[in-house]
Design brief:
Pfam families: Acetyltransf_3. This is Acetyltransferase. Keywords: Transferase. One of its GO terms (cellular component) is cytoplasm. The structure is a single chain. By secondary structure, this protein is an alpha+beta fold. 30% of the residues lie in helices and 35% in strands. The protein has a single domain, classed as 3-Layer(aba) Sandwich (Aminopeptidase). Strands 1-2-3-4-5-7-6 form a seven-stranded mixed beta sheet, sandwiched between helices. Strand 6 and strand 7 form a beta hairpin. It starts with a strand and ends in a 6-residue tail after the last strand. 30% of the residues are buried.
Length: 168
């Protein structure tokens, strides 16, 4: 059992700790995950970036911070949002990422009018691709040179969750 809670300063130290614990897993795929990641970065994200979307912290059954999931890059005119997620290294392999994505999709369907939630994953990020597939995302194909990570372009596997409303 897990719980999604809105991103909040209450868990800032836990976020910082989890990023550093998980840097080896995150750094190849997420531009912000770097050795210089600091509490200033956490506070900037919580104060300036997180409010631009719907960002949640993932807590395990014991109430421990284990990762984040959220909707960002919102495009309300087309009712589209990007869906992103990560789970700290010590909590991997327990199905928490899949459960968090499933919970966020259900939340989005009940609390927003987004018709399309996109998951954009570097082709080589097999763990994240598995999460999207296990959570029921529809695989749409590969977008060439879609992601710029550490100064290098990567092809991205494109997945989506759609509400099915008025899809032609």
């Amino acid at each position: 059992m897990l719980k999604l809670v809105p991103a909040d300063y209450q868990y800032a130290a836990d976020l910082f700790e989890a990023v550093h614990e998980s840097r080896a897993d995150l750094e190849p795929w997420l531009a912000w995950a770097k050795s210089t990641y600091s509490m200033d970065d956490v506070n900037h994200w919580l104060g300036h970036i997180a409010p631009q979307g719907y960002e949640f912290f993932v807590l395990d059954a014991a109430g421990r911070y284990v990762g984040s999931v959220g909707l960002n890059a919102l495009r309300p005119a087309n009712r589209i949002a990007n869906l992103g997620y990560w789970i700290r290294s010590s909590a991997k392999g327990r199905g928490l990422a899949t459960a968090a994505v499933t919970a966020l999709v259900a939340w989005a369907r009940s609390n927003t009018d987004f018709n399309r939630l996109e998951v954009v994953v570097a082709v080589g990020n097999t763990a994240s691709r598995r999460v999207a597939e296990k959570a029921g995302a529809h695989y749409e194909g590969v977008a060439k040179a879609r992601l710029l990570l550490k100064g290098q372009y990567h092809d991205a596997a494109m997945y989506s969750f759609t509400s099915g409303a008025d899809v032609a």
